[in-house]
Amino acid sequence: MNNDIDGKVVKQMTDETKSDLNADPITGEPGSHPVGTALGSAGGAAAGAAIGSIAGPLGTLIGGAIGAIVGGGAGHAAGEAIDPTLEEEYWRAEHTNVSYYKEGSDYDRDYHPAYAVGYANRARYPADARFEDHEADLERSWNDVKGDSELTWADAKPATQDAWNRVSKPRV
């Protein structure tokens, strides 16, 4: 395969020739392996979740997000995946600056699980998915990972939605 082929040229080729190049169906770029990328992401997510299980339900949730990044590796899915470490650092610094912050709450016990439910679950849904349409699933996830948090879902929901919205925005 010639990696120097321009995507515009590929778009003008026959379907058979495109197939031989593994051309991306949208961009026309040669060397696309969407099935392999998806399988790698899914396998990586499963492996990450298994490793994260050592740290309990929250570790499983975040481990799955990290595994999807590693599993997608060289594929396109990795570019769209979130970075849980970056998100955790951002929210640790910002959590006291939001209107829903409850004085005396503990970031690690209360807010980290709430934010993680938002950012780690976001990639499970289509790009145009709305938080409101998946709130019941997210609430179940919250109940699975909240551990010793003193926040109810009503208290955790704004943090979860903020994290969901933050990773939904295109990054430059």
Can you put this structure into words, describing what you see?
With 172 residues, the chain is mostly helical. The chain folds into two domains: 7-81, no CATH class; 82-172. It is 61% helix and 0% strand. Helix 7 (107-121) packs across helix 9.
Short description:
With 172 residues, the chain is mostly helical. The protein has 9 helices and no strands.
Helix content: 55-70%
Report the average pLDDT across residues.
73
Give the class from helix and strand content and strand pairing: mainly alpha
Biggest sheet layout: none
**What fraction of residues sit in β-strands?**
under 5%
Rg for CA atoms: 19 Å
Which shape, going by the Cα principal axes?
Answer: globular
Distance between the termini: 31 Å
How many structurally independent domains? 2
Flag low-confidence runs: 1-5, 31-55, 68-79
Order of helices and strands: HHHHHHHHH
Number of helices: 9
Strand segment count: 0
Q: What brief labels describe this structure?
A:
172 residues; mainly alpha; 2 domains; 61% helix
Could you outline the blueprint of secondary structure elements for this entry?
Elements: H1 7-11, H2 15-21, H3 34-52, H4 57-72, H5 76-80, H6 84-94, H7 107-121, H8 135-145, H9 153-168
